[in-house]
Amino acid sequence: MSFRLERHRRHGVPWSFQGRLAATIPVFLVLWGILFAISLMSSVNWPQNDLGPSDRTIATLSPSTKVSFEQTRHSLHCPNLRQASSGQASGLCGLSDTPNRYPVQTHHLTLTVRQRKTGLTQKLHVLLRMPRGFLGKTGGIIFLHGAGSYTDTDSFEDVAHYYASAGYTAMTLDKPTWKTNPTTRDYRSSADAYEKALSLLRSLPWVNPDAVGCYLTSESGWIMPMIEQHDHHIAFQILNAPMLFSPRVELGFFVVQDFSLVGTNAGYIGIVNRLLSVDIHALGTGDADIDPFTRSSFAIPTFFAQGSRDTMTPQVDGTMKILRSAYQAGNRNVVVRNYPMANHILRIGSQAQPNTQLADGFMRDTLTWANGIVRHERQTAPVVAGDEIHQSLRMPVSARSSRARTFYLVILNVLALLGLLVVFVFSVVLLIRRLIARHRHHNIAPLFVAGFGRTLTLVAGTTVLAGAFFLLGLAVTITRVVDLDWGGTTQVGGMAEWGWNVAQIACIVVIWAWSSIFVSLLEIAIRHGKLAWLRWLNPHHWKHVEESEEEDQGPYENGPVISLSKIGQAYAITVMVSMFLVLLVFAYWGLFIY
After folding, report:
1. DSSP 8-state class, residue 337
2. What span, in angstroms and rounded, lies between the C-alpha atoms of 582 and 423?
3. Cα(157)–Cα(237) distance, integer angstroms
4. Range with the lowest mean pLDDT among 72-81, 421-430, 439-448, 540-549?
C-alpha cells in the first residue's frame, strides 16, 4: 500500500456527529431553497376566472329530446307521408323517420388526397352504404372522424347503416392522416380531404346534391369550420360533442377537470398547467392555438348533441357559443340536446367494452331532424332539451405558450434522459468488468474512498425511487382519466393522491444525501489544506488530528478525494451530474412546492 494512501486512511477520521450535522443542515437548506425557487418560477398560475370552480348550469325546456317539425309554404310537400314511411314515395319524400325501411347495399371507392405542406398523398378507402330500392335521388351524409386513426369500415358502422336504411347514401372513409400523429395533425389538409369527399358524394348520380349533410364528432369540430369556409352547399351538420375551442383551452379544461374527478394530487394538476404553456408550434409539432371558427361556422342548420357524462368538453360554454354564433349568423335552425348517462361520443357505458350502444333516442332524433331540414320544414320542438346541462370548471382562456419555458423544459428533460442512459451504460460496463475480474480471480479494488460509495448509492437510489413514485402516480391518474373519458367508472384517490407525496419524501432524502456529499467533499477539501478557515465547523476533530500528526508530516493530507481510480472518479461524476439533472426536472414539475 502506498504511503499516500496510508496517510489518507489514517487522517480519514470522520467528523463528529455534531460537526457533520452543523455543516449538513445549512447545505440542505440552501439546496432545498434553490429547488423550491425553480419549482416556484416554473409554476403557472391562472387568473381567478380560469380553471376555477364554476358549477354553472343551463336548464332545459323539456326533458324529452325528441324533435318535431311542421310544414310551411316553403316546405317540400309530399303527397302522402304514409307512402314516404312505407318507402314507396320518391326523392326526399321517400326518406323515412325510422330505420330499416330499405335494405342496405355497399359500394367501395378510393380517393387520393394530398397534404398541403409536404405534398404527400394518401389513398383513402371510401365505403358507401346505400338504400336499395329507393326511388329517385337519396339524401347524403358524410361522417368526419374524431381523435384516433380509423378506416372506412371500423367507424360509424351503426350510425351509417341506420341512415342508409332510412334513405340516405352514407359515406365513411379512412381518416386522412398522412404521416401525422395526434400531436401533429394537419387540420387544414384534413379539411381539404373531406371537401373532396363531399364533392364526390354530391357527384354520385343517385344522390341529391342539395340534401348532403355532415355528421362529425370530437376532434373534427376543428375541421368542420374550415370546410364551411369554402363549401357553402352543406345542407346540415350534426355535431356529436365537437371541440369548439382551441386545443390548448380544450386540453386544459378536460384534463384538469378529469384529474380532479379521479381525486389526483394537486401536484399533478400543476403539471397540466405547465404543459399548457408549452409552445408546440415552436417545436414543429402542430398548432395548439388554432381557432378556425368564424361567423359562418354555425350559419347552417345545426344539431348539437352532448352527453351528461361527457367530461371532456365545457358543456355550458359550448352550448352558449353555438347558440350565440347561430343567432349572430341569423340561423334559427339549431337545436341542443343533452342525453342523460351518455359519454363523450354519446355512448352508454364504457368504450372499453364492445358494442356499446348510442344514447336512447339519439339516432332517432338526428334522423328526424335531418329529414325535416332537407324538406325545409320548420322546427316546433324546444331548442334546448334533454338533461340539465352542467359545467363544473371555467375554461383556461388565459392559457398562453411560452417559448423560453418550452426550450428550458425540452433541454432539461433531454439532458436528464441522456444522463440516465449514460449512467446505465457505464454501470453495465463496470459490472461486466468486475464479473470478468472475479472470473479470472483478480483482485477487485474499491471504486471509491471509504463511505463515499454508500452516499452515492443513497443519492442514486432515492432519486430513482422518487421518480418511480412520481411516474407511477401519474400513470394511475392517466389510466383513470382514460376510463372516465370512455364512459366507465373509476376509483378515486389512492396512489393518484399519495404517490406524489411519497415522491416528495424521497426528494427530501435525496437533498439530504446531496448535502452529505457536499459536506464530505468539504471535509476532504479541508483535510487537503483547502478552505482551512472552515475548520471551525468541527474544531474538536481538527484538534485531535493536529495532536496526532507526526512532526515531519504537517496537518494536511494529500490523498484521493472521492475515488481511488480515474474510472471511479469518472463514474462518480457521471452519476452525480445525472442525478442532479433529474432533481432539476423534479423541481421544474413542481415537486418542491405542492
Report:
1. E
2. 12
3. 18
4. 540-549
Give dist(CA 287, CA 282) in Å, integer: 9
Nearest 5°: CA angle at 495, between 492 and 498? 105
Please state, in angstroms and rounded to a whole number, the distance separating the CA atoms of residues 503 and 568: 29
Contacts of 266-271 with CB under 8 Å at 24 or more apart are 266/594, 267/500, 267/504, 267/589, 267/590, 267/591, 267/594, 268/473, 268/474, 268/477, 268/496, 268/500, 270/43, 270/44, 270/589, 270/590, 270/593, 270/594, 271/474, 271/589, 271/590
Between helix 157-164 and helix 362-374 the angle, nearest 10°, is 40
Beta carbons of 139 and 208 less than 8 angstroms apart: yes
User: How is residue 137 annotated by DSSP?
Assistant: P
Q: Decide: 561 and 573 in contact? Cβ < 8 Å.
A: no
Domains of the chain, start order = 18-43+402-588 (no CATH), 75-269+289-393 (3.40.50.1820)
Q: Is-above-0.85 flag for pTM?
A: no
How many whole angstroms separate alpha carbon 160 and alpha carbon 409? 45
CA gap 76, 174 in Å, rounded: 34
Q: Which three cell numbers stand for residue 195?
A: 371537401
Residues 416/419/421/424 CA torsion (nearest 10 deg): -130
- Taking only the tens place, the pLDDT of each residue in 41-71 is 888 776 655 666 677 899 999 999 999 999 9
Grid cell in block for residue 158? 351503426
pLDDT tens sequence across 504-559: 888 888 888 888 878 777 776 666 655 555 555 555 555 555 555 444 444 445 55
Note the helical H segments in 174-240: 187-203, 224-230
DSSP string, 265-332: -HHHHHHHHHHTT--TTTTTS--TT-----TTTT-S-EEEEEETT--SS-HHHHHHHHHHHHHHTT--
Contact 295, 286 (CB under 8 A): no
The closest of 196, 189, 234 to 215, measured between CA atoms, is 234
Least Cα distance to 562 among 486, 459, 470, 465 occurs for: 459
Q: Are 214 and 189 a contacting pair, CB within 8 Å?
A: no
Please name the residue that has the C-alpha cell 378529469: 258
Pairwise CA distance, residues 298 & 205, whole Å: 29
Can you list the pairs that 270-273 forms with residues at least 24 positions away whose Cβ atoms lie under 8 Å?
Answer: 270/43, 270/44, 270/589, 270/590, 270/593, 270/594, 271/474, 271/589, 271/590, 273/43, 273/44, 273/45, 273/46, 273/51
Encode burial over 530-540: b for 16+ CB neighbours within 10 A, e otherwise: eeeeebebbee
User: Is 470 within 8 Å of 591 (Cβ atoms)?
Assistant: yes
Q: Which amino acid is at 462?
A: T
Cell 382519466 found at: 481
- What is the rounded distance in angstroms from the CA atom of residue 421 to the CA atom of residue 552? 48
